[in-house]
Design goal:
By secondary structure, the protein is mainly β.
C-alpha cells in the first residue's frame, strides 16, 4: 500500500481556505475542489528530485468544502474554513521539506488563507494525520518546515 502526503491550503495556490465573503460564488469549481480530485505535484525522478516545486495558480472563488473535511482549530478560529482545494506530493526518502504559501500579487489579505499538511493513505484525512505530517498548520501566508521529513514510501 502506498502512502501519500496531501496538503491542503486555503487560497489560490495550494489547498487553501479563503474567507473572502465579498467574492462572487458564481462559476465553475476548481479542478481540485475535493480530496478525490487532488492535483499531484510531481517532484520529478520518482520523488527523488531536489529543488523548488510549485503548483499552478488556482482561482478558488467557487471552491467548496466536503462533508467531514477536517480543519485545524487555528484555521477555524481565523475563519479560514469556508473553502478548500487539494494537492498531493510523494517523497520516497527521508529529507527536509519546506512548504510555502504565497501569491503572485497582493489581492488576498494575509489572514484570509492558510494550509494544513497531512500524512495519510486516504482521502479526508483527520487531525491525527495532520499531526503525523510534522509540518505546522498556518492560518496566513508563510511557510512550514520540517528538517528530517519521514519516509512516506513503502
Amino acid at each position: 500500500m502506498t502512502r501519500f502526503v496531501a496538503f491542503r491550503i486555503r487560497i489560490f495556490l495550494f489547498v487553501l481556505c479563503v474567507s473572502l465573503s465579498s467574492l462572487s460564488a458564481f462559476g465553475q469549481a476548481p479542478p481540485n475542489d475535493s480530496c478525490q480530485s487532488v492535483i499531484d505535484i510531481s517532484l520529478g525522478t520518482g520523488g527523488f528530485s531536489i529543488g523548488t516545486f510549485q503548483s499552478d495558480s488556482i482561482n478558488i472563488d467557487s471552491a467548496t468544502i466536503q462533508v467531514g473535511e477536517y480543519f485545524h482549530s487555528s484555521l477555524v478560529s481565523s475563519g479560514n474554513d469556508k473553502k478548500s482545494i487539494w494537492y498531493r506530493f510523494y517523497i520516497p526518502a527521508r529529507r527536509g521539506v519546506n512548504i510555502e504559501l504565497k501569491q503572485n500579487a497582493n489581492a488576498i489579505a494575509t489572514k484570509d488563507v492558510g494550509f494544513t499538511t497531512y500524512l495519510s493513505n486516504q482521502c479526508l484525512p483527520s487531525g491525527s494525520d495532520a499531526t503525523n505530517a510534522k509540518l505546522t498548520t498556518l492560518n496566513q501566508f508563510g511557510s512550514s518546515f520540517h528538517p528530517a521529513w519521514i519516509q512516506v514510501g513503502i
